[in-house]
Amino acid sequence: MSCYNSLMVKESVINFFNNQASASITAGKIEKGIKNTYEFAKKHSKEAVALGTAIFTVNTISPVFSQEQTTSIPRSNTTIESLVSSNSSKNFDIDASKIIGLSKETVNSVNAYKRLQPITTAEDFYNGTAWNQSVVSDYLDILNPEYKDQYLYIGEPDYAKTKNASFLKQNWERGTFYNIKNVPSFVVNGYYDRNKIFYDTEGLKFISEGIKKAKQYATMEIKQVQDDNYLFKITGTDKGLNGRKLNVNVLVLKNEVNCDDNNDYFRTRILKRVVYQYVYDKAMGTSIKLENGQEIIQSINIKVPKVDQNQCDILGIIQDMNSGEILAAGYTDMIDSKPALFNIDNLPECTLGNIEDTSKYTGVDTLAFALKNKVEFQDKIGLTKKIISVTDAKDLKHLSLQLDYTDTEAKIYQVLAAALNPELMDNATFTYDPITNKVDIFFINPINGNKELLYFYIRINKATINGIKDKKNITINSVNFKFSEFYAYDSNNNLIKYNIREQKNYFPVRMCTIPDPSDFNGDAEKDKDDLFLMMKKFGTRLGDKDYQEKFNLVNDGFSKDRIDIADVCKLNQEIGNQEKIQKEIDTAKKLQKARVTELQKFEARKAQKANYLQAR
Question: Based on the domain organization, do 544 and 465 belong to the same domain?
């Protein structure tokens, strides 16, 4: 759907407009010329709205129209402002309120312009048969943290059905402009080497070099005037713009986008960031004439439902249409606020111990086994409680999520139960479907700040550390603990601003499982059976016939090379921890059963009432 409407303008009106403005400006009567033009425009009600979107430049004697604009001038549903400014004379603000029907107070009370942060663009083109490269972006952020805020990863799938929306056809058109031959492919600052196939980890170097070479030949600013109406200001700041065939583009990007099941081609069900909207409705934007020292202001219409705005960014681009080079790029959050972070087990942004080895390998598939979790981030076989927490939450009213638990995960661990943090029992309604592993939490008083929210209880049955095969027969050393759906809403039923940190195969944050040295009989449980086996070796030392090293859990100090009370105490402690988790599981299942029973009673009463009313 187009993000702005077009209004055909009579040729005679356009000619009059250009002639009047040019003549007056040439004569040095800029203010008079513009006012005369608008007086004429007011007599032509339909044309006047269109004329209100005319684009002017600094240091030029006449309004600048592209060929396209002289036949159909774009406008937003409510045009706000046209402006002419000149370095050789004072600035003139046109009273657009008389043209467009808004009060002068409304026009004058709009927010100040917000400067778009200069940025390097890393466009990722991919489709359903070749997974995306957001994983490469994640590795770069860790290996080169100094670059993290200097570039923007932009997913542009030509095949990806997101929840409530399909892929944008403009993504494919943009890839066609670059003549993309292989996917996935990065296009950085509009540069794509058509003669070379880039391997995954080369993207790390490609983006890094792009950051160093990025050009910023213009500044961009934006301000919201009313509802969907924005003013977009572009100022040329370098003579490198002069004489070029340029397009301006404005894109809306959305973060943490839920994606339909695609057989996990993307290695994730939640896409890091994708293009949500092309504001000019065209993949490459619209033509523009801009030179050093010139200023252009456009009225644009950005239609993003309120529910999505917190999760959206606005990206502006000035691009050379002959070379494809991006000469300026900048972005800003659509709504300014700090994002909340939803996390699993309070993990850092990287759990790998040898991530510095990334550059030794060409493919992320290889990294799936070559890079391994640190010891402290390895999960032992047995019962485990997975903690879902949030930091920096703001007005979190409703959390809805679903585990992406497939046959692959079921081979490694079993989901036993889910439960609300007991501290929140009096402040939330919690529902869990054990068949789909879907959770919904409605908070009476919204959550702000940091809080553990809920727990998933699992039994790990198999170790991944020494390698397992994924569904594509690739050897990996981890297992997913991630979501197929995730939504976080505020009190107005709008998405809050948030990021998600999941445990995903191939990515820098993983779930790696290992054998439990205390599980002596290998039944994935630590209990009295294991204690009985240890007691049979109690008192033996290194060198004794019956001594077995595996029972020597504490091998230092007085207990070195012997099986003694220290080992027994260590095992008893671990058995106690497992029993504690089991009790929590039993409690969670009882609560779940009670909720189901109550729901069944409610449905029965509702059916009984319906039957009664029908009988009457």
Answer: no
